[in-house]
Design goal:
Number of strands: 11
Mean pLDDT: 92
Radius of gyration: 24 Å
Low-confidence stretches: 218-222
Number of helices: 17
Oligomer: single chain
Order of helices and strands: HEHEHEHHHEHHHHHHEHHEEEHEHEHE
Largest sheet: 9 strands, mixed
Distance between the termini: 68 Å
Strand content: 15-25%
Helix content: 40-55%
Length: 416
């Protein structure tokens, strides 16, 4: 028996080597560069009419905390000045406060960026975006300026302050009483129990703000814009309560609430004579088929609502360094290497852009087949980077997007 042990050891090692070789060979084969080089640098790209004429044109980001995906927002807004409403994956109230700077209000771009609710937007790249919009607006009449709008409802403080400030102008005593009644609900204390404790007060606040005489829906944001913003903020507090009450359906409920707020923004923008809206959010939210979810997310709902009027530019990467929360309250830099097969179409570019409507036959065929596309959220653990299924989403690009930007070497944002 002892004489057979060396043989078994050799056979076991040989089998292990064969398995490893097969695994590496399979990965090398499935991630080989495919398609014909066709992409151009995004800065040099001319967008096609199906994108420039969209009712809603979304730009996704494969990862939060990535500099290039944030600077793409500025480049896209520069190319499309006719898209005068920009909807962000951010809190309704926080964005309303930041928009004051964009319209020429006091402070610096950095100070404005720090007023966002989500840490992922408190970056130098976002500050540069805000400064670009402010500078462009400065040369335009008020009716032609670009506005920022938030669609998320996961924060409290800015929404509460906007609603109470509006009420204080008309009913100081009522505003003071409701401020005290809602004092326990804050950005730091906003779980389901926190919302239940002040539920009646939230309804009273929304009704009181509406009673101040806010202009009716559909007449454009130019009419009583401050009142409209305050009422949106009050309703966002109610939506936040609804979100917290849905427990296991949190993601699906959030998608529905963001869609409702996006729809409202489009309706108002159209009424103001600006029928084209930009949408900036994570790829997972804006793609048309909700590839990352088991429910219909924002993009799928938007595609149902606007049909071909909803267009999406997705993003991907080959290698990215990005900042995300490590689960312990700290933001750290993480690295993902993702040799997407689509990189063959983007050969020779750093931030390549490919409009699927202009793709050649070979590329079109590849874009209609499932491919893993890079994806990471704002919470991340280092070990996830080593498990491809945890940092990619199986997607048929042509079903999910109308165009794609592939960043070869993506870098981390600069936090403020």
């Amino acid at each position: 028996m002892t004489e057979s042990r060396p043989l078994r050891t050799v056979l076991t090692l040989a089998l292990a080597v064969l398995i490893l070789a097969a695994a590496f060979g399979w990965r090398a084969w499935t991630t080989r560069a495919q398609g014909e080089p066709q992409a151009v640098e995004f800065t040099d790209a001319t967008l096609g009419p199906q994108l420039t004429g969209a009712t809603v044109l979304a730009l996704g980001e494969a990862t939060h905390g990535n500099a290039e995906f944030q600077t793409l927002r500025t480049e896209l807004a520069r190319k499309l000045p006719q898209f005068r409403t920009i909807v962000l994956e951010e809190d309704v109230g926080s964005v309303a406060v930041v928009d004051r700077f964009v319209q020429g209000g006091p402070g610096t771009a950095g100070e404005a960026a720090l007023r966002f609710g989500f840490r992922l937007n408190k970056t130098q790249q976002v500050a540069d975006f805000l400064q670009f919009l402010r500078d462009r607006n400065a040369a335009l009449p008020a009716t032609e300026r670009t506005h920022l709008v938030g669609m998320d409802v996961q924060r409290v403080d800015a929404n509460k302050q906007l609603a109470l400030d509006r009420l204080a102008t008309y009913d100081p005593a009522g505003a003071e009483r409701l401020a005290a009644a809602l004092a326990s609900l804050t950005d730091d204390h906003r779980d389901a129990a926190d919302y239940r404790a002040v539920s009646a007060g939230l309804d009273e606040l929304a009704a009181a703000v509406e009673a101040t005489g806010v202009a009716a829906e559909g007449t454009g944001v130019g009419a009583d814009a401050a009142g409209r913003v305050a009422l949106d903020a009050a309703r966002a507090l109610q939506q936040g309560r609804d979100l917290q009450q849905h427990g296991a359906d949190y993601a699906a409920t959030r998608a529905q609430l963001m869609y409702a707020n996006l729809d409202r923004a489009v309706t108002r923008s159209t009424a103001d004579g600006a029928p084209h809206v930009l949408l900036f959010a994570h790829d997972g939210h804006v793609d048309k088929v909700s590839a990352a979810y088991h429910h219909a997310d924002l993009g799928a709902l938007a595609a149902q609502r606007w049909g071909e009027g909803y267009r999406v530019i997705g993003t991907d990467f080959v290698r990215t360094r990005f900042l995300a929360s490590d689960g312990g309250g700290k933001r750290r830099e993480f690295v993902i290497v993702h040799p997407t097969p689509l990189r063959g179409m983007f050969a020779g570019t750093r931030q390549g852009y490919l409009d699927f409507a202009t793709a050649g036959p070979a590329n079109t065929d590849r874009l209609h087949r499932t491919v893993p596309m890079g994806s990471a959220g704002d919470s991340f653990a280092a070990w996830q980077a080593w498990v491809p299924p945890l940092v990619t989403v199986p997607t048929v690009p042509a079903d999910a997007y109308d165009a794609l930007v592939l960043v070869t070497q993506a870098t981390a944002v600069t936090m403020l």
